[in-house]
Specification:
Helix content: over 70%
Main location: membrane
Structural class: mainly alpha
InterPro entries: AA-Vitamin_Transporters (IPR050638), EamA_dom (IPR000620), EmrE-like (IPR037185)
Keywords: Membrane, Transmembrane, Transmembrane helix
Membrane topology: Multi-pass membrane protein
Order of helices and strands: HHHHHHHHHHHH
Oligomer: single chain
Organism: Halorarum halophilum
Number of helices: 12
Number of strands: 0
Shape: globular
Strand content: under 5%
Length: 315
């Protein structure tokens, strides 16, 4: 029964996080649509984490003895989380998704490169971790997948959403770098508290970016789609999603939980097709295969160990 529960939670998390890309597109709206956050994408991300941060902090108060960060290392962890894991990641992602060429599935595939990029950054910032020749090849294969998915036109590199897809790539790189730096600091802070304070700090930073770029809440036309998307992203994708993530992290460990990134694009494509009439292109599927192959090369030893453990064999 426990194995079925774990599988259910794994698929639930993949569905919740995969469909989040569709919810972002729906909440942003279009240049010619009746409303949404198309003109204020950074503000959209900020308001999302105002709500999600408050919910996560309330949860941290319940489950953590002392939810307030203490000491330089814990505050440094929160700062890295706020700047990279929340603010930079979501600014790049939300602005990138304003381009119609960046479908829900395409964004999810590019973000799925994050575990591979994490391994690459770990080599630079964590001396105990290094990349073999096969690992370097795996990182290269993953990056090639993003190039395939982007499908740049050499005659016009600004066409076809290339810049927007590069912004989504920067989102994946920001999240990967933030993950490595929080591991380097290793403050031993409860992850619930770290996520809550990072969300609130990241929301504050995004409000600053939004204000500096001229985005104002008065510009938002509160359509039903915008409200539903905001609620879904704040409550379901963020608050509920991270609760499921914490549970699975304890059950599966960091290697298996990374596989959520490779199941999520399927749910992103399905949600985009059902709700936004998006049709994934062959480049999206081929790019995903490259990214996943790169992950398998980078994590081949860990994957082999996890498979042996799953089959009950000696590692």
């Amino acid at each position: 029964m426990s194995r079925y529960r774990t599988l259910f939670l794994f698929l639930l998390l993949a569905a919740v996080w995969g469909s989040a890309f569709m919810a972002i597109k729906a909440g942003l709206g279009t240049p010619t649509g009746p409303g949404g956050f198309f003109e204020t994408p950074v503000l959209f991300a900020a308001v999302r984490y105002d709500l999600a941060g408050v919910l996560m902090l309330a949860y941290a108060v319940i489950v953590v003895d002392d939810p307030i960060p203490r000491g330089r290392d814990e505050w440094a962890t929160v700062a890295v989380g706020a700047v990279l894991l929340i603010a930079a990641y979501h600014v790049f992602l939300f602005v990138g998704e304003t381009d119609p060429a960046v479908t829900s599935a395409a964004a999810a595939v590019i973000i799925s490169l994050s575990p591979a990029l994490t391994t690459g950054f770990a080599r630079a910032f964590l001396p105990s971790e290094s990349l073999t020749a096969v690992g370097v090849a795996g990182l290269g294969v993953g990056l090639a997948g993003v190039v395939v998915l982007t499908d740049p036109d050499p005659g016009n590199l600004l066409a076809g959403g290339v810049v927007a897809k590069f912004l989504v790539f920067l989102a994946a790189a920001s999240f990967a770098l933030g993950s490595v730096l929080t591991r380097r600091i290793d403050a031993g802070m409860p992850i619930e508290s770290m996520e809550a304070w990072s969300m609130l700090g990241g929301a504050l930073l995004m409000h600053g970016v939004a204000y500096g770029s001229g985005e104002r809440l008065a510009e938002v036309v509160w359509t039903t789609d915008a409200l539903l998307a905001l609620g879904y992203l704040s409550v379901v994708s963020s608050a509920l999603g991270f609760l499921v993530y914490f549970d699975l992290l304890d059950r599966l460990g960091p290697v298996e939980i990374n596989l959520v990134s490779y199941v999520a694009p399927g749910f992103a494509a399905l949600a985009g097709w059902l709700f936004l009439a998006e049709t994934p292109t062959p480049a999206t599927g081929l790019g995903f295969l490259f990214v996943f192959a790169g992950f398998l090369l980078l994590k081949r030893d860990a994957v082999r160990t996890e498979l042996a453990r799953f089959r009950g064999e000696p590692a």
